[in-house]
């Protein structure tokens, strides 16, 4: 993971540590590529200086663009970084949160915001509205990645406390406070919830197995026992059902219908749809319109 996230550009230091752990990190990389990982006793604040991605977690997905920020609690995720038009490098700033490091940052007096007496299950990720405080924070630490000798332990501790304060001041809905209070508690998901949350997205079976915490072979066996059919057949059937509904009820272009239903290859979509409905998507729409006008 770190080999991908913390590449070196022009021999520049790209991470700063406390207690031997990376706490402030900056990643440069050339997209496209995909990262699948599971945060174990770790959470993150991420700011995208430059780049675009689709971030998938077990029960949802989030579109991320240049200048966006988000907080990700202890969770499994898959991040699909999209290619840039000019083939430029992405730049991403990452603040890592660990229980022992946070305790050290706050001099063994961890604020109450990091704990909750209520049994709650917050979403695993929360996007943070763009604001001047985050922009100023990012600009204030970029210099220290280029001059790491100036980044003392006390400086890093101050910056961690500062980003926590910024997150609290940016919390207009209360969702960030909820995540912070359950930062290192991994959510539990029903198997069907994971599947149905990603039926129409560009994820492979390996990604779904990753979210379910299973090997690919175990995932397929579990899927067959739950849905009484294979993953490929079930997912294809559900995608075609949605495509049929959109063609009948909307005026979306066929290519947009295909994309919205998880088909990224228009030719494959047309072939699959024709095989299932004995006509092309365009022909199906014409027939449906004709029937509804009679």
Could you outline the blueprint of secondary structure elements for this entry?
Elements: H1 2-5, E1 15-18, E2 21-29, E3 33-38, E4 43-50, E5 53-57, E6 60-64, E7 69-72, E8 76-81, E9 90-97, H2 99-105, E10 125-128, H3 132-146, H4 153-169, H5 175-181, H6 191-197, H7 205-212, H8 216-227, H9 231-249, H10 254-260, H11 266-277, H12 281-293
Antiparallel strand pairs: 1-2, 2-9, 3-8, 4-7, 4-9, 5-6, 5-8, 7-10
Helix pairs in contact: 3-4, 7-8
The CATH topology label of the largest domain is Jelly Rolls
Number of helices: 12
Average pLDDT, to the nearest integer?
90
Q: At CATH's second level, what is the architecture of the largest domain?
A: Sandwich
* Helix-strand string: HEEEEEEEEEHEHHHHHHHHHH
Shape: elongated
Question: Based on DSSP secondary structure assignment, what is the total number of beta strands?
Answer: 10
Describe this structure in words.
By secondary structure, the chain is of the alpha+beta class. The protein has two domains: 2-181, Jelly Rolls, CATH 2.60.120; 191-293, Homeodomain-like (Arc Repressor Mutant, subunit A), CATH 1.10.10. It has helices at 2-5, 99-105, 132-146, 153-169, 175-181, 191-197, 205-212, 216-227, 231-249, 254-260, 266-277, 281-293; strands spanning 15-18, 21-29, 33-38, 43-50, 53-57, 60-64, 69-72, 76-81, 90-97, 125-128. Strand 1 and strand 2 (21-29) form a beta hairpin. Helix 3 (132-146) packs antiparallel against helix 4. The radius of gyration is 22 Å and the shape is elongated. The protein starts with a helix and ends with a helix. Residues 1-12 have low confidence and may be disordered.
